[in-house]
Every structure is written in C-alpha cells, then in structure tokens.
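U., I forgot to send this yesterday:
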Amino acid sequence: MAYFDNAATTFPKPECVYDFMNTFYRECGGNAGRGSHKFSIGAGKMVSETRNRLKQLLHCENKQIIFTSSATIALNMILQGFLDGKKTEGANVYISPFEHNAVTRILHHYEKIGKISVRLLAIKVNLTYDFEKIQTQFTKETPDLVVVSHASNVIGLISPVEKLCAMAKKYKAVTVIDMAQTAGLVDINVGLETIDFAVFAGHKTLYGPTGISGFAMKPDFDLKPVLFGGTGFESANQDMPKDIPQRYEMGTLNIAGIAGLYASLGWILENGVGTLWEKEQEHRKELLDILSSYDFIRILGVGEKNDYVGIVSCVIDGLPSDTAASVFAEKNIAVRSGLQCAPLAHKTLGTFPSGTVRFSCNAFTGDGDFVQLSQTLEFIKKNI
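Result:
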C-alpha cells in the first residue's frame, strides 16, 4: 500500500518500536505502581523514563507529563477540568479557525449551556494570523482561555503558538496548544511560562503506537479532576491524590503503548527532530509537485509565506471527496477524505460540507509511494 494517511496515524513505525514492545511485554509485563516485585518496578522505571524523554524532546523539564489513552481524552481533561473549576462562568474562550472536534465539541457543549463564549482568532485572507485584530479582540473581550492547534490536521498549516500564547498571557489567560500533528516534528519550547498545557498524540508524529497520548502541564496548575479511580497511591483516601501525575492518571496505564512510545522517543532523539523535519519537508514538496501537475486538482490553503507539516488537502474536479478516496483505495493508496473531524477548518477554507481529499506524508514516505500515486492520478485523468 502507498500510505498517505500519516495525519491519522504514522505508518510504518520505526522497527525499534515493534521490537521493544514485543521484548518488554515478554520479559517485563508488569503493572506500574501496582506492586513491589521486579516486573512492576521494571514497568514503573520504563514509564518514568518515558516521561523524561518527553520532557527532553519538548524542552519542558519544568512541567509534568500526564499519560492518557488519546489526545482527545487529554483535551477533555484539560478543558473540562478548567471550565468546571472556579470562576469560569461567562469565560471568553478563543480558538483558531482550524480546531479539531476534540476541541470544538467540548467548547460547544459549554457554550450551549450558557457557561462560555467561543470566539475565533482573527486571520487574514492568506490564512496568517492578524495580530493587530487579535490585539483588538483581546482588548475588547478579555481572553480567559486560548486554545490553538499547532498545525491544522486539514492543510498542515503551522500556527505561531509561541506568539499567540505570549499575547494571551498578557491578559492572564490559560493557554492550551494541541500538538497532535507536531510533537516530535516541529521543535518548539513547551517549557515556556506562557504555555500552560501542551497535548501530544503518541501515535502520530511521535511514531509510537495507538492508545498512548497525553499532555504536559505546569505542576502548580489547579486543574480539577474529571475522571476518578484507583492510582496505586493513597488508596485509603477517597479524594483523588494531590500529587501529579497520580491525580490525573487513574486506572491501569497502557504499559504496552508507553513501551512503544519509549522506543520511538529514543529513535527521534537519536535521529534528531531537525532531520525528521527536513525529510518530511522534502516529501511534502514532492507531493505538492505531483498534485499541482494536474489541472483537475485544486490544492487548498497553500501559501508561500506560511510553514506547513506534511499534510496537503485538495479537491478533485468531478469527484466528490469520498468517491475519490474510494478510487484511491481501489488502487491501494491510503488517503483520508471528508471533513477530517475538523468542520470549522473546512468552513474557513470554503470546503464545507463536502470536504477534501487529504494526503499526508512523513519521514518514511518512499519513492514507491509517489510512483503509485502518479500512476493512479494518470488513471483518474484518463478514466474519470
């Protein structure tokens, strides 16, 4: 299969991920924090070292790492934990026009019950942020919470999250960045004091398995727990522990997933984020060159002055996006069609409700993938 669906989950994973998960579960398959035997202790050490590797990669030794089963769960814990906390009635929440449903559906719920007001950060026609207008927005309606996807999962556009968070902090807003499409690929300093929370998805640009994600947070932030249960810690206490990460990690962690993430993080740190970024940029350019050579393909949201991860969305003349995806699937090419769980982004781009065909490459995308794509596009040109 020619795999162009890396924005959904990267494939393949580095070989060390498969090997370490297999070896770890055969030789040390214990439950972290649930015993004093060597299997449990071994699992606990591996989990701790995985946190340390994430802190190193994200440059956030000053923050705590919380593991969750998905980035969606992480965002729910952060947003619900904050909005259900004290003094958030009538909060002004600002988001980018490119947010995923993992953000917008949560905020829609709170807006529907009258607790918050959701506002879009101003952008220009070329999709860059209009900082002058944003400053006016913040002055007029003071932000309490600002949530920004570091990179759009529809067009790959990278947002200037450092500058946006710095602006928001001047108004003492809580800042959340969604790094599902960028952690381990775009090198930024998550340790900045202007960033309160940063969400990562282990199975995407971190090249780990599915089922393991999480977030970095300031250790002194009073985030209300929204999930409860056993932690292997302070079991007699019927309140969730105050200690982090135990306060937000209830139940058994996905030890196998963390083992895979441990291996992938080691691989990224060894190869270097910059190397992976350069490879993905080379493959994105090749992808753009192929797609732009056909006059029946319209590429969305590409601008010379903007930075992008390896995601490209397009519309094919005469072919609805879902139909086009079926054609690619028949030719053994993996793509993603429709709204990609980001209807707000498509409304911004003018592709709602039909959506787009999304291609996403990564460091492992090979020459054979591009040859197969070109052959299929030639087939579409001649037959459809």
